[in-house]
Amino acid sequence: MDSKNNLTRLWVFSAVILLGMCALAAWAWQQLPANASIPVHWGANGQPNRYGGKVEGLFLLPALTAGIALLFTLIRYIDPLRQNIRQSGKAYAITWIALVLFMAGFHTVTVLIALGWAINISGVVTGALGLLFLVMGNYMGKIRRNYTFGIRTPWTLASDTVWDKTHRLGGKVFMAAGLLILLSTFFIGSLLQVYVLLGTLLGAVLLVVVYSYLIWRKESLT
User: I want to staple 175 with a disulfide (CB 3.0 to 4.6 A). Which of 9, 11, 137, 203 is the partner?
Assistant: First the structure.
């Protein structure tokens, strides 16, 4: 994905999703009382532990989604290795799309909860994150070396070889992590799902970081 036409398509896609999110928020605004307290943060047990007003509760996530689209646009122009980002093609586009869809889904769930729907937020978010990591892991091996997008360690940034090998392994690791996280939503309780999520992601990150160092050390000694 390196042409202006493809970037335009991604912006159009993001704009359509954002309009849908804002339309849902505007509709919910009319349904809720002026002094409504809307859950904006949840604890590990799936219970809300912070509330906000209607502006924060209904429009913060659309604003963050717009920020994600803007960030993905900017890195194509400000990264010192921006040509590699443009050559990352499908991985770049799929990650952008997946993140925007994740935010839209999270926004929909939070609005429905604000309107009184009984939804297990921990299960929904955990399952969605599992899917997100499955998708991102599938394309991770296609990301070319850059400073803002991908697995960035001192050793992957120092070498194309280390970057490529780390991302090939990282793709498999993140797909396995995503599958484990997704399966956890069907077989264990909400609190354990959070622990599985955090433990799995910590383990996956630690594995690829250590692997990148070992590959770099082996390369530097030859």
Answer: 137
The first and second tokens of residue 124, run together, are: 């929904």
Q: What is the mean pLDDT of each run of 10 residues along the chain (222 residues)?
A: 74 97 97 92 84 95 97 93 90 95 96 92 91 94 94 96 97 96 86 89 96 94 76
Number of domains into which the chain is organized: 1
**Residue 174 CB-density burial (10 A; 0-12 exposed, 13-18 middle, 19+ buried):** buried
Q: What backbone torsions phi and psi does residue 36 show, to the nearest 5 degrees?
A: -60, 140
Domain with 86 in it: 4-220
Q: Is the dihedral of CA 36, 41, 43, 49 positive or negative?
A: negative
Q: Which residues pair with 38 in a beta bridge?
A: 52
How many angstroms separate the CA atoms of 219 and 210, rounded? 14
Tokens of 98: 């997946």
Token output for 196: 């599985």
Q: Please give the Cα distance from 198 to 192 (Å, whole number).
A: 10
Q: Give the predicted TM-score (pTM) of the model.
A: 0.89
